[in-house]
Design brief:
about 220 residues, alpha/beta, TIM Barrel, 8-stranded parallel beta barrel, 11 helices, 8 strands, binds SN-glycerol-3-phosphate
């Protein structure tokens, strides 16, 4: 499963990217607002530190303007993926942009039928928002497994990019269900390595090693 980071904290994204753990980054208008920076600058900076897909979302709601914005965003860097909402206008823009060879991530996906339309429109990625479904007591994991089954039934190449991830358990569920990508908020990503038994076990090993009086170097 590929790990994308969902955010715009350049320093932390560079840190984890330099570890070879990050395959891409996703942003959206709320993330850009939170960054307090100019969107073009953010996307350009992200594209320079992470070689994988960088999702940049259009602001327009009509397909013609979406295509115009999408072309402009794609010109920021060769690894920019254009994010479009799953609406009829978004699907029309997806069709047009993907035919121009521009990578598209269809976002705000909450149903299998939306994901089917995204694949048939040529999207490289579809982003089912699992956390927002769970917030409504629906099951985000079920959507991931439904989409994976439908895409395998018809051999669609569109990648399932699990989004709206809220917990470490969401990451595990996505991996168990075969999501192609999980885009993980940075604070959740930082927690992936943590386990209290690892911490206590390491403390014990360290204390016992010190008692040996030995040194390796
Ligand atoms: O990439 C989509 C993600 O940022 C949405 O997350 O927590 O606003 O549902 P959330």
């Amino acid at each position: 499963m590929q790990f994308f980071l969902d955010g715009s904290d350049i320093e932390k994204i560079k840190k984890f990217s330099d570890l070879g753990l990050i395959d891409g980054v996703t942003t959206n208008p709320s993330i850009i607002l939170k960054s307090g920076k100019n969107m073009i600058e953010v996307i350009s900076e992200l594209a320079s530190i992470v070689s994988g897909s960088i999702s940049a979302e259009v602001s327009a709601l009509d397909s013609e303007k979406m295509v115009e914005e999408g072309i402009k965003l794609s010109q920021i860097a060769e690894n920019v993926t254009v994010k479009l909402p799953i609406t009829w206008d978004g699907l029309e823009a997806c069709n047009s942009l993907s035919q121009k060879g521009i990578s598209v991530n269809m976002t705000l996906c909450f149903s299998a039928s939306q994901a089917l339309l995204a694949a048939k429109s040529g999207a490289e990625y579809v982003s089912p928002f699992i956390g927002r479904l769970d917030d409504l007591n629906l099951d985000g994991a079920d959507l991931i497994s439904d989409i994976k089954l439908i895409y395998s039934n018809y051999n669609f190449s569109t990648k399932v990019l699990a989004a709206s991830i809220r917990t470490i358990n969401h990451v595990k569920q996505c991996a168990l269900l075969g999501a192609d990508v999980a885009t993980i908020p940075i604070d959740i990503f930082e927690k992936l390595v943590k386990h209290p038994l690892t911490d206590s076990g390491l403390s014990q090993f360290t204390a016992d090693w010190e008692k040996t009086g030995q040194s390796i170097l």
